[in-house]
């Protein structure tokens, strides 16, 4: 009788409880926490614990790997189309060098004589421009046709990359100087 009344009382108490949805539940399990120590091990730890089996076969020491011979930089193409092509080494460098000299010369003559760029060209500047252009072009092309790359002669401060950017700025500066003097109708300074 006591067992049946205990079973009846336990079912009555569980029916009065509500589950997490708000409906009456017949059985709600309770979780009892106990101190359970779980240990997670990786397979790498197990492999390290295993002792390697020593073999009786003699093993030769590894041979030292030979150091590769120092490689020379690839030879630069000396073909006319490669040197003077659209993406070749010469066109932008030569134009940049000419622009650097032209910009400095135009500013120097403007400061000394008070003449703008167009006056300098019309007062005998064309032969000077052509002579300088031919001389600098040949001086720039001779090493390129001999296979010497510009990057091989590059130093820290005077690098080929800096020369390209200086030439680009000089080209922009020369065009800006001429355009400004044309709009102003006289010298810049």
TrEMBL record:
Signal peptide stretch: none
Residues that span the membrane, as ranges: 94-113, 125-145, 165-183
Subcellular location: Membrane
Keyword Secreted recorded: no
Membrane topology: Multi-pass membrane protein
Species in which this protein is naturally found: Lupinus albus (White lupine)
Top-rank taxon, per record: Eukaryota
Chain spans, region Disordered: 43-75
Name this polypeptide is given: Putative chlorophyll A-B binding protein
Major place of residence: membrane
Biased composition (Pro residues): 59-71
GO terms for cellular component: chloroplast; membrane
Record-linked SUPFAM superfamilies: Chlorophyll a-b binding protein
UniProt keyword terms in alphabetical order: Membrane, Transmembrane, Transmembrane helix
Keyword Electron transport included in the entry's annotation: no
């Amino acid at each position: 009788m006591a067992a049946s009344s205990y079973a009846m009382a336990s079912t009555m108490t569980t029916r009065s409880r509500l589950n997490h949805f708000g409906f009456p539940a017949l059985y709600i399990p309770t979780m009892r926490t106990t101190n359970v120590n779980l240990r997670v091990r990786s397979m790498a730890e197990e492999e390290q614990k295993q002792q390697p089996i020593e073999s009786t076969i003699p093993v030769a020491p590894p041979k030292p790997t030979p150091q590769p011979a120092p490689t020379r930089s690839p030879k630069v193409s000396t073909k006319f189309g490669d040197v003077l092509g659209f993406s070749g080494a010469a066109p932008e460098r030569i134009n940049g060098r000419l622009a650097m000299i032209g910009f400095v010369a135009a500013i120097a003559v403007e400061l000394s004589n008070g003449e703008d760029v167009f006056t300098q060209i019309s007062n005998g500047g064309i032969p000077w421009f052509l002579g300088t252009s031919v001389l600098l072009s040949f001086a720039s092309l001779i090493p390129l046709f001999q296979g010497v790359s510009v990057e091989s002669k590059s130093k820290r401060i005077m690098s080929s990359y800096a020369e390209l950017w200086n030439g680009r700025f000089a080209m922009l500066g020369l065009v800006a100087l001429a355009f400004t003097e044309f709009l102003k109708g006289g010298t810049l300074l």
